[in-house]
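Lab notebook, bench 4. The sequencing result for the construct came back, and we need a structural model before the next group meeting so we can plan mutations. Quick request posted to the team channel:

Model the 3D structure of this chain.
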Amino acid sequence: MGNQFLANIREVDAIIHVGPLFADEDVPHPMGSIDPVRDIEVVITELVLSDLDAVRKRNEKNHKKAKSGDREALAETAVARTARPHLNAAKPASTLEVRDDEPRLLRLFQLLSASR
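Done. Here's the predicted structure in token form:
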């Protein structure tokens, strides 16, 4: 997926996966064949990779604030520390287990794979 496309979908309220379940010679498939499971896994992988980048950028932005003791930045840094290995394991953010106080902070990262 292109960076511009990913930036645009960060602005939407919902993401819906729709894919073809049929072969049509007039509609070429970018991977050469129809495989719904593979196709959804590719989309999820792209979203997770984009989320990893979003976590990295937000963490870099908060680094200086966290060093100075800013509570919100420290809390976000802790959430990023939890999210990064989960995403690195190619797991979507929607399957990340967080404490009661962390969902609000996690939303600040605008993770594309967080929607259920």
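DSSP finds four helices and no strands in the chain.
Will bring this to the meeting.
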